[in-house]
Amino acid sequence: MSTTHYSFKPLNLGRILVWGGFALLLLVAPLIFKSGLALTMLSQIGYMIIILLSYNLLLGNGGMLSFGYAVYTGLGAFCTVHVLNKIGAGTFGLPVSLVPLVGGLGGMAVAIVLGWVSTKKAQNTFAMITMGVGELIFAMTLMFPEVFGGESGISTNRVVGDAVFGITYGPQIQLYYLIAVYCFICTGLMFMFSATPLGRMLNAVRDNPERVQFVGYNTQVVRYIAFIIAGFFAGIGGGLFALNFELVQGSAVNGLVSAWYLLFTYIGGALFFFGPIIGAVLSVLVGILLSEVTKAWALYLGIVFVLVVMFAPGGVSGIVMLNLRVVAFKKFNRLWKPYLALLATVPVLVLGGASLVEMLYHKQINAEMNPVFKYLGFQLDVNQPGDWIIGAVVTAVGAVLFEIARRYFKRHWDSAQEEIQAIIRIKEAA
Amino acid sequence: MEFFTISLLNGVSYGLLLFLLSSGLTLIMSMMGVLNFAHASFYMLGAYLAYQVSAWIGFWPALLISPLVAALIGGAFERYCLRQVHKFGHVSELLVTVGLSFLMLEIVQLIWGRAPVDYRIPAELDGPLFTLFGSQFPIYRGFMMGVSIVMLVSIWFLLARTRIGLVIQGALTHPDMVESLGHNVPRVFMMVFGGGVALAALAGVIGGNAYATEPGMAVSVGNIIFVVVVVGGMGSLGGAFISSLLIGILTTFAVSLDYSLVDLFRLVGTQLTPSSPGYSVLGLKLSQVAPLLPYLLMVLMLIFRPKGLMGTREG
């Protein structure tokens, strides 16, 4: 394993391709998706990538499960807003392009102060402490309206200062490219960090803290430094968030926001570096699109999260990598039929189950106004027992078919994995 | 004196309720190594179930039925979800309980709505218990204290004085040995999880009508019991007891005290005005910062004694 990380040959073609492709994607994405909504989503994805990658610095690399991460993004955003307002008032001179760095330094400063207490303990206690600290800071934002703007928050204007090369950040597309540049650089820096000796030591602290102590390292100091670095990138993400919305409210440091980061970092996958990038894309899609489509989105999200934790602890990226491994070992020819079976049965189960959930939500929230609502082209009436029965029957049939397909899939999947393990063992022994 | 006595009694009753919650959490944590993030959700579930059952057949059956139903749900969750992710390690175990807390919040809102429900103290427990210095102490506060204490003594008795307790304690330290003596350790874990959850639900039954039964109750209490456990020392029941009472009394006193640091300065002869530097901090009344105090206590504890009041492990 270690050889892949320490080989700095003059030309690492794979790496150039991946990073070049990433840069190209950031560059051309707004040229392909031109609508206003798409641009908003792309901008949000950009800073979400920074935030979730920095979160994964703690979760994936350091094994630290933080429940108060919004503190660092939120306070970074507040720093940005205050500096931006000072620039607008003419009392502080800094080009807007560099303002997210202020957010980064703000997040870092907060991490330096709060991180020492938070990283005193690892694992479960760390999770509880970060939650408590997050709650402390959130309560404080409501207590000091001069600093945090109380309920309404603090608004700002990003079109301030002198335009550098004619860039004013008035049009969203200019801001998108600023976010894209930050996103690319921060992603690169965080990837490089994971290969430094400190990054490797962080993995060791995650996997075997006692041994690290025997070697002579202070585990708390390693965690603390990682915490500060993560806080810096979180602050940059928060700063870009502030530039994007031109408004920051106390709710930006809320525990719900922290939970949101955790959820999507994990769903994207904490084991691979690119997992949180997938998570960031998913989080924006869910946050903007899914919440438009259905009122039950939080329930669906919860179910998906539990399913991921129980059956795919590597998240989406883990699923992708496992399947790539199957392809690489030429075992996929056995799996495509089971996959087809799953593909045929899952929609039945999901459609049936979702129809019941939608009817429940509709009954609960706005059945008094109109008991009939549209569900994927069907007219469903919550007062009609027939509609409930049809939904239940479809769900039940879907569940039975899915269970058959799942067993069929599991049989083949397990045997394929076992054969791959055997091949790897033979290779290692040779 | 009147204020002091009444506040102290209210603080102790709130503290005992906190301990009922944190004892379940501590039991599960020290026994299975699982930090149950959904613990406060079971508190909420207990309150809602009690509201429903008491609407149907009265409060007294609810006092029994609600914790039992919650224990069944908790046991099933342990058996079919938690045990499945055990092989992936503690982080996955913690996360599956986080997922459960999301789902429970959504489902409770789906069944009982997003507004607070009208879960009231039963008529026979409504009224003053005794009059002290001219102010009345409600029967229900006394009832809460009574239920908590009875429950705690029975847990202690169960763990320390019975054969089942012996097996549970053995399963905690030497699961393999207990297993080879013929006890079903996974089932012991399931029972411990269900028991801990039942304690949380019981706290919900008696706390839901004393405070408020609403969807936000899990989050507000959940944070506090984590503070209780960290301050008391991880896995220590005695520590959890002391810190529950401490935090219960601290917050109860603080909400009714309208003093700020400005008043302190006035005592020593310095008059501060809203134009003095730092007035926004110094002028905050103790009642305003009351919600902060548990968290401040936690931070101070971590700085000066990271292992907590009665903690044994520094880790």
Task: State the main characteristics.
heterodimer, A: mainly alpha, ABC transporter involved in vitamin B12 uptake, BtuC, 2 domains, two-stranded antiparallel sheet, 17 helices, disordered N terminus, B: 315 residues, mainly alpha, two-stranded antiparallel ribbon, 14 helices
**Proportion of helical residues of chain A:** over 70%
What is the third-level CATH name, the topology of the largest domain in chain A?
ABC transporter involved in vitamin B12 uptake, BtuC
Question: What would you call the shape of chain A?
Answer: globular
> What is the CATH class of the largest domain in chain A?
Mainly Alpha
**Tally of separate domains of chain A:** 2
Largest sheet of chain A: 2 strands, antiparallel
How many angstroms separate the termini of chain B?
A: 43 Å
Q: What does the average pLDDT of chain A come to?
A: 87
Give the strand order, joined by hyphens, for the main sheet of chain A. Answer: 1-2
**What proportion of the residues of chain B form beta strands (DSSP E)?**
under 5%
Topology pattern of chain A, helix = H, strand = E: HHHHHHHEHHHHEHHHHHEEH
> Biggest interface, and residues per chain?
A-B, 40 and 46 residues
Radius of gyration of chain B: 21 Å
Strand order of the largest sheet of chain B: 1-2
Largest sheet of chain B: 2 strands, antiparallel
**CATH architectural type of the largest domain in chain A:** Orthogonal Bundle
β-sheet strand percentage of chain A: under 5%
